Structure formats: C-alpha cells, structure tokens
Amino acid sequence: MRAQRADRQALTLWVIAALVSVLILGPILVLFRASVSPPGTLPFDGWDLTFEHYATIFTRADNLRLAGNTLLYALGSVAIGVAIATAIAWATERTDMPGRVGARVMMFSWMAVPPLVMGFGWILLINPGNGALNALAKNMFGLTQPLFTIYSLWSLVMITALAVVPTAFVMVSGLMRNMDPQLEQAATVHGASGAVIARRITLPLVAPGVLSVAIFMFMTVVQAFDLPLIIGLTARIPVLSTRVYLLSSPDAGIPNYGLSSAFGVILVAVAALLMWSYFRAIRVSERFRVVTGRGFRPRRVALGGWRWPLFAAVLFYFVLMLLPLAMLAWASLFPSYRLPSFEALGYASLASYARVLDMGSVQRAIGHTIVLVLASASIVMALSSLIAWFSVRGRTVLARYVDILSFAPTAVPPIVMVMAILLLYLQSPLYGTLWILILGHVTIYIAFGTRTMGAALMQIHKELADAASISGAGWFTGLRRITLPLVWPHILNGWLWVVAHSARDLTIPLVLMTTGNVVVASALWQMWDVPDLSGASAVAMLLVAGLLMLVVPLQIYAARQSDRGH
C-alpha cells in the first residue's frame, strides 16, 4: 500500500511537471528562438540564427543609462514598498492596533484599482499644470510655482512604492500571523528589550520570507510598464519595461519581437541569479518553521499609548492610497474634466454610468471578465498549492525542477511573455477565444501563487504530515485534511489577489484582443484612448465596485476567522 501511494504521488508530480512545462517552457523556448531570429522575421519563418539583437543591446551607449534608471527605480520602489508593507503587516497581525480588519480590507481594495488608472489619477492630482493638489496649494498659499511635480524619478519611485505595498502585505502578513510568540516571550523573561527582540528574534524569523517577497517584487517592478509608460516617458526617464513595450508595440512600423525577446532573455539570466539567492535563503528553512504539532496560540503585542499613533500612521498611508481613486470618481461625474470644487458639484451627474452600461460592448466585456477572473484565480491557486507542496515536502530533482520553472515567469516581462504566447498559439483554436486569456493569466500569475503557498507551507512542520501517514492517510488526504486547512487564509488571500490582478490586467487582454474576447480592462483602454475620460472613469469605477463586492466580504470573513485564532 505504501508503494502504491508513492507511485500515485510520483505520477501526480510527473503530470504537474508536464503541465507546467507546456504552460511556461513552451513560451520561453519561443522567446529564446525569437531573440536569435533575423530582424524583421518571426521565430519560425526560417532556421537562420543571429546574435545581432544581443550585440545591439550591449553596444548602444543609451542602454547603460537605461540599466541605471531601471535599477534605481526598482530598488527604490521595492525597498520603500516592502518596508511599509512589513510595518503594516506587523501592526495588523502582531499588535492590538485598532482597525486591523479594516486595514486588511483596504489592502485588497487598493488592488482593485488598475495601475493605468492610478497613474492618471496621480497625474490629475499633482501634474504641474492643473493638478488638483497644486491648484489647492496655489489658492491657499499664493504660490507661483507648482508645489509638486509628477514628472521626476523620485515621484515615479514613490508612486510605485505605494502600489507595491498591498501585494507585499498579502505575502508578508501570513509570515507575521504564524510566528510563534514563545520565543519572544522567552526573550522578554530574560530581560531583552523590544529593540533587541525585534533584531535578534523577530527579524531573523521573517527574514527569509521577506527576502522572497522582495525578490518577487523586484522582478515585478522591473517588468511593470503602466506607470513608467505614462509618467516616466513624459519625464524622459526611460526604463527597461518601457523600452521592451515600445519595441513590441511601436506607434509606427512593425514590432521588433527579436530585440524585445533579447531583453527578455537577459532578464531570465538576472532572475536566475535572484532565484539562486532565494533558494540559498530557504536552505535554512528549518530555522523558521514556527507552526508545529505542539500547542500553538499566537499572542498580540500590547501597544499601550502607541496604539493610536500607529493607527494614525497606517491611516495616512490609506489616505494617500485613496486620493487617485477619489480623483477617478470625480472625473466620472462630468462629461469633461473639472477641478474639484463646491461650485462644480451642482453639475455632477451619473449620466456617464448610464451611458456605458447601455453599451453592448461593455456588457459583453463584463461577462467575459467574470469568467476570466474566476477561472484564472481558481486554476492558479489549485496548481500552485500542489506545486508548493511538492517543492517543500519533496526532495527530488523533479520537484525542484517544477518549483524553479513555476518561478520562471517572474523573469520574463508580461509584455514579452504574452508576445511569446501569441506566437506559440497563433495557429491554434485557442487564439481569439477567452481561453487564451485564461492561459496567459495562469502562466504569469502562477509565480505569485507558488511563492505565496511556498512561504506558507514552509511554516508547517513535517511532523504533521508524518502523523497523518502513520494514521493511514495518503499524501493527498493529508494535504487536503490537515495541511490546506492550516494555510487556507493564504489560499484565500492568493485567490483574491489573482482575481484583482486578473481583472485589472491590461497587457494580456490588449495584446491578445480580438472582437470575441474583449474584457473590461481592454474596453477601458479603448475608451481612454479615444479619449473618453468620463466614460473610461465610469467603467473603471464599475470595475472597482464589482471587485469590492467580491473581495470585501471574503476578506472580512477571513480576517475575523484569523482574529479568533489570535
């Protein structure tokens, strides 16, 4: 019987390996092939090979500035964003700060705002010409020069850092939630101060997990092109993501798939180095396995007089978070943009909402979006849970291969990956259907799912699975009945994250768009590009409202269940 269980487990792993290889390795191989194709050709137009694209990258002088801007942008955004996320996660999961449930809900609410719309919201707020905050500062203080400017590297870094926080929070909060307080209590008994406990116990326990979060977010920021495109290009701050995007989707001429693919291959090499660092960090995973079969009950830190100052600091972040969304809501109330004022309120109406909801294209896009987000999120988390379990529990070469391969999409910019998916499935029945969008989202978001579930399963000690096996349960029964119930908040958080990001993603729907698979994100882009600012703002607010109706109830439920365990 034990041999039969081992055979079934091995067969399951082989099936997962084959599926992940098709999903991820296929487009990556196309990416490599495109990078050595002659200029002006598609990957399979012939068998000629050239390294001209790589020579172009390493010989052009402006690429050195491009690399410097990208490094400074990514490091600055991730350092600030992950630091803020870790602090808020500690406050909500490890202390008695008031408003903890609201803080968790707000984090997921922020992910309902597409980066493109968020960027336009910040432009409306602090652009030097007619930004709302600059206009307010001029009226209040009589300034002749704008107080803020959005078109600078540090403005781009700060805005991106604020956008990084919710995703990093989702990944870090689980680490904070499952920390056993007995080690900190023992240090307190021995007279250690709070600063010493944080430096010698708390930080070492969460450091490997936070490192994996930082690696994931670094690659995410390097690949992001929404904010660098609408802010960085106007400010003449080129970064790698905008260069790749403009090469793949030029305003004039044919796309240069070869050069953009060559940039993608270089990013794969960088990601390999980052993954090597990540796996070295988790090699000491036994040191931070903090949930075992022994009695475990987390305890919150009593803040005393610091409860309300800490609450005010967290609230300040959420105020910054809501400002672009408020500007978007304001813009949706008028046929043309107006600066916020009490006088303008008399002309506000919901006419834009009625207009867009009566459009057949928007109605079809809403239906497609519902199917897309539910299918993508469910497939990603189911597959990620299995991959993470085999990665953490399995010590085989095949398990390590699947784990590394599932992380590979992090190394490839979404715009490059989706181009590879387009080239790979162009002649298949999937092209032009909603299923190719689902396939693209599963391919790209599986990296987040496996990192989230991997970090969660690392904290579940092997002795629990051993106890189930001794009692006669198979590996899948132990996973389903013991392991997954312990980490279900991580599964729910990951599912909600994929839902939000799938709904707001523009890259995949835009590149793979046909008349038969338009979703809300691509419809929003089309309306904004017309331009139809009021209609696009109304569609964006409907998208946010729909996501909130799904995310908020589930997140409140998960947060309250988690608090009962505390």
Question: Which characteristics define this entry?
Answer:
566 residues, mainly alpha, MetI-like fold, 0% strand
List the helices and strands and how they pair.
Blueprint: H1 2-35, H2 52-59, H3 62-94, H4 100-110, H5 115-126, H6 132-141, H7 153-177, H8 182-189, H9 194-223, H10 226-232, H11 240-248, H12 257-282, H13 307-331, H14 351-357, H15 360-393, H16 397-407, H17 414-425, H18 434-457, H19 462-470, H20 475-486, H21 488-504, H22 507-511, H23 520-529, H24 533-565
Helix pairs in contact: 1-12, 1-16, 1-17, 2-12, 3-4, 3-7, 3-9, 4-24, 5-10, 5-13, 7-9, 7-10, 7-21, 8-9, 9-12, 11-12, 13-24, 14-24, 15-16, 15-18, 15-21, 15-23, 18-21, 19-20, 21-24, 23-24
Look at the structure and give the mean pLDDT. Answer: 80
Report the radius of gyration as a whole number of Å. Answer: 24 Å
How large is the share of residues in beta strands?
under 5%
Helix and strand element order:
HHHHHHHHHHHHHHHHHHHHHHHH
Give the low-pLDDT segments. Answer: 291-296
Largest sheet entry: none
CATH topology: MetI-like fold
- Indicate the structural class: mainly alpha
Summarize the structure.
This protein has helices spanning 2-35, 52-59, 62-94, 100-110, 115-126, 132-141, 153-177, 182-189, 194-223, 226-232, 240-248, 257-282, 307-331, 351-357, 360-393, 397-407, 414-425, 434-457, 462-470, 475-486, 488-504, 507-511, 520-529, 533-565. It is mostly helical.
